Write the structure tokens for this entry.
Amino acid sequence: MLANGIRPVVFFSNSNIAPRAEYEKRLGELLRYAESLGVETVIDSYDHDDWLDRVMLRKDGRVDGQLARCPERGPRCLECFRYRLRRAALFAVDNGFDALTTTLASSRWKDLDQVNSAGREAVAFALARFADPASGADCPFHAARAAVSSLSALPPQYPAASFPEAPLSGAPSLPRLVFWEQNWRKGGLQPRRGEIVREQNFYNQNYCGCEFSERHSV
């Protein structure tokens, strides 16, 4: 992106990752690399319990066993994509961005059709909410406008950001957010990803982050 004149803002929304120590380790790697490139990062609130409630349909403190047993690329992953991309789309609309894409589309462990479907749905959801803020007030994703929590483990140069009550100055009154369905695995991008991992000596795992994907990792 940077080589082609595109300067993205990274929205880190990964309440799926557990435990908290694993989340902070991965976030630290992102911040280290983003800082080296001069790329802005916004940190969403971390709430694994909420993620379980919304994605796993947890009831009475117990996780839905059927979803928990689903392999990667199954219905649990789709619900996870919806949860995180809706939060990203709300932030994008509130702050006047015109395109949203996701690193989820770079992983060979993910179903690209699921990712793109969730992305398109998230953009439609966020635009509808912008047009009518009162709609869906009881929606599970209403909390995505809450303040982004601070992370005690982060050094002071990474202050917590927050969702503004209204679009920032200069943001369009009628947003035109689109989901950028780029296949980040083709055109030499997958090998380049591997090169960057090695060059930066990144901490790397063979599962996406949640305890359920870890059980199915090899």
Q: What stands out?
A: The helical segments are 20-37, 48-55, 65-68, 75-94, 112-131, 189-200, 211-215. Residues 137-172 have pLDDT under 50 and may be disordered. Residues 75-94 form the longest helix (20 residues).
